[in-house]
Amino acid sequence: MSIEIEKKYRLDEKRRGEVTARLRELKAEFMGEAFEENYLHRGGDLKKRAAVLRLRKIDGRAILTYKERIGHDSGVKQRIEHETDVADAAAMERIIESLGYTLNAVYEKRRQTWNFRDVVVTLDELPFGLYMEIEGEVAAIEEAERTLEIQDLKVEPRGYPRLAIEHGTLVNNICEARFAHDG
């Protein structure tokens, strides 16, 4: 069983620039930038289990993820996480629907990923705001907070699915949080 441990923070443009500069100064390894489309499904036992089934499309790949909340302490979230690459996203969507799960939210995200010591730092831009996540062991997250000088940042306890539903627009009974696209 894989356990994801992470802490999420709200950012503004100024703090995002400061964090990026600090990561560079501390020689964090920039792993790249990606655009994601995230499709969230509900139904069955997912709500009762505080779980989500997500199909993420990124750079021609598709990744199916199951997450189930198991803990939450001082801003640090802990979740069971199972994830696998999917060869055919459209077929996977049909399988998910055939199993009785319904698409209830879609959100887009631009993500920069950095490896920094014993954690992974992601800087995320969503249509409704800027965020940072630090993933790793609790002690490593706390050390990264001190080293990056971000102890004053506001912790965001809500996950992107909930934020997308709160800030998105209802389109054909599906909550969507998308960037404005030309064309």
**What would the principal axes of the Cα set say about the shape?**
globular
Instruction: Determine the mean pLDDT.
Output: 94
Q: Which blocks of ≥5 consecutive residues have pLDDT under 50?
A: none
Termini separation: 43 Å
Tell me, what is the CATH class? Mainly Beta
> What's the structural domain tally?
1
Give the count of helical stretches.
Answer: 4
Rg measurement, Å: 17 Å
Widest β-sheet, arrangement of strands: 1-5-4-3-2-6-7-8
Task: Identify the notable features of this structure and list them briefly.
single chain; 183 residues; Hypothetical Protein Pfu-838710-001; eight-stranded antiparallel beta barrel; 10 strands; 50% strand; globular
